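User: structure tokens for Colicin import membrane protein, please.
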Amino acid sequence: MNKLIATLIAGMFATAAMAQTTAPVTAPVVAATPEVAKAQAKADKAVAKAEAKEMKKDASANEDVAKAQAKADEKVAKAHAKAEKKQINAEEKVAKADPEDKIKAEAKADKKIADANADVNKTTAKAESKVAKEKAEANEEKAIAAAKTAEVKAKAAADIKAASVK
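Assistant: Done. Predicted tokens:
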């Protein structure tokens, strides 16, 4: 539980960091010298590479969340099917019971149905928790990737500025 809370908090901070926009890289207005053109080309290449890495990380994180969601949906569906089967079996036993034992059989069936429903609720809660954890981790990964891209953009702008001074 502590890990889940820590992950959710980290994801919240990561989302907040991601929400803060950075200034776009703009080349300073300078005379087009060969040094500046070379620095600009190098900066453009570095920024494109960083953006590609960020997009790849985002896609990977989204894929992980989708897999976790699919797995959770499958577990919940299996739990529902199992509960439904238990309910049908319990109802059949009630129907087969002798008239004098019918009330006792109904009570037993109600207990089995309640247990089956509790199992479904537990399975659903666990599955949703895993999906939430995966989403938080994905948000954290995306925020880190965005921060790295912003760092590369800032360094690229500084390199262009430095080349223009030479």
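User: Anything notable?

Assistant: The mean pLDDT is 86.
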